[in-house]
Amino acid sequence: MGLAASAWERRGGTVVTLLSQMSRYLPVAHVDPPARVHPERFKSKSMIDYVRLHEILPQFLIHSGLRFQLHLRLLRRAVETLRAEFQRLYQAGERSEVSPQELWGRLDPYFHDLDLLTIQTLLALRAFFPGLSKAELRKFGVELHCQVPWFALSDQTTESKGLSH
Prior knowledge:
Layout: H1 2-25, H2 45-53, H3 64-95, H4 100-128, H5 134-147, H6 155-160
Helix pairs in contact: 1-3, 1-4, 1-5, 2-3, 3-4
């Protein structure tokens, strides 16, 4: 179980780092409005409620940059909330007499939701790349690589500016 918690923390941390890095570069990016996050795709009640709570806000924003910024904030805070809930549930399960199967069953919706948030983050990253100039994209990649060493933009990515389909 400890291995799963470690992997969870690593992935959650990586997703938060990606979202934070995109937020820092958002002022120099020209981005299209992001895709909507659908609350009904989540399994945990906390994520369903959190996404529903923020569902109406983008309708009041006309500028696509502000909508993208709101999208990144929603994703980052959702991942942070999910990480905290996972840790709370995991630690409570370790302290109690809960069977491993029952604990895995309780944690499963959180794993599912982290997968969804990771996918949404990667989709945002894909939409973000074309909005950066080649120089900014290269700088973004270098800075991100310093924070997440296994992440590296290939020369092909920087040449095509992330427009591979």
